[in-house]
């Protein structure tokens, strides 16, 4: 019984308080998880709905075929047959989804209405919806000539030698629309992205004895290389269109692949690319790039693992060169499936990628934990020096910053932890540490915007005391922003989640005016109100703070009521 004495000395009220604290803490974490689950379920249902053909409007069809009087669902194909007032079939109307759901532009597929008359010629096309970026879609819609060029073309024209023009500034989006229309109308789409066929001259640069190129029956697009005696001395193929959906820095690349007589790779050459010209030039001028995969056979190329192959890429054009190399593997896998006549490709597990950047981020996290849990946090030189590292590295260099846009994206889809171990580790630290301690390690030590405000706090001489009534109003801002995030996540309203917070401002390549304005405005506000943005305007910080362990964790707070209301809002949005 002596061993039970310490437990007996614990006041009953304290034991109840500890139990209630765990119960409330579990509820708070479960609440966030419930909202994330609802977002995931909504995203999945929305994705499935996007693949279904929309109901075709007779009014839209009449805009292209005025004599149309009725529509009848087609039994032998997608879409609907068009009839005139006498009941005679005068055409066919169809949407490009779901037939072309795998044809993406810059970031997603586009659903278009296609109207064909009785002569099997296109009378008109209208864009109904798109998952592509609004900026690219707007450029296509502004170019009114783009859709007009389809008129009077037949499916055979699109699948044959007739080439349609893409919209400058929205090339990938417009090309995807062309390909989706072509595929929907029943013809294999021509290669719009890289129409230039393999030329003898480019093969001769790698195989000087080449005298003739002869097309093979299978796989499609493969050419046998003959010498002056008619002897086969190699085989050539290119990665387009098989790897056109693999995007590099700015777009896909077309790579020439030369195999020797034993079927092993001799060399490659970057033919064309949508990436920036300097990067493409660096790859072409690099002496080692053509032989990165030398000696690989088709099976090895199809199973290419960039990390295992230790391919680091061309200095100064890493993403372009690695993307072009990966395209070889993607195309090889497609050709191998064609050779083996496999109807369904075998899904490969996503390889785990752990880079030096991930290692550096983990070191920053460890340093932040050391500062948070030791006396180092009280030393000004540590705060200033580490704050600079956080801003420079996690912010401007690595971009490992948490945001509501990131959280909603992860909730909507699977967390890509295999490719962003450092960023996932930051998220784990952000939620796990405050869940079991009083330390707000992310907001106080790992957030670049928080670090910037901390530096301003050290130098600012102002300290404006916010009036009580105004403070109550400002305290509601994060909750309002979280409500807006939920409305956007469930597609109730259109909006850009990244534009609600300042964090994109630390990644100049993607920052917009909204993020820049919020970042600058928040820092100016923090010069007068210490950590003003963190305290009154950060929805991401509010989510993380909600699971923080503190002295009042065993008490139901206003935040708990607001969070419960936000869950209710998510439930309502889910069922709408």
Description:
There is one protein chain. The protein has 576 residues and is an alpha+beta fold. The protein is built from 23 helices and ten strands. The chain has helices at 5-8, 12-50, 58-64, 134-142, 144-148, 155-159, 171-184, 200-204, 277-285, 298-302, 318-339, 356-372, 380-397, 404-412, 421-436, 441-446, 448-459, 468-475, 477-489, 513-528, 532-536, 539-545, 558-575, and strands at residues 70-73, 80-83, 89-95, 110-117, 122-130, 212-215, 223-226, 232-238, 253-259, 265-273. The strands form two sheets. The chain has a five-stranded antiparallel beta sheet with strand order 1-2-3-4-5, with helices on both faces. Strands 6-7-8-9-10 form a five-stranded antiparallel beta sheet. Helix 2 runs parallel beside helix 23, helix 12 runs antiparallel to helix 13 and helix 17 (448-459) packs parallel to helix 20 (513-528). Mean pLDDT is 83; it is low at 1-8 and 342-350.
Short account of what is shown:
This protein has 576 residues and is α+β, with helices and mostly antiparallel strands. It has helices at 5-8, 12-50, 58-64, 134-142, 144-148, 155-159, 171-184, 200-204, 277-285, 298-302, 318-339, 356-372, 380-397, 404-412, 421-436, 441-446, 448-459, 468-475, 477-489, 513-528, 532-536, 539-545, 558-575; strands at 70-73, 80-83, 89-95, 110-117, 122-130, 212-215, 223-226, 232-238, 253-259, 265-273. Helix 12 (356-372) runs antiparallel to helix 13 and helix 17 (448-459) packs parallel to helix 20.
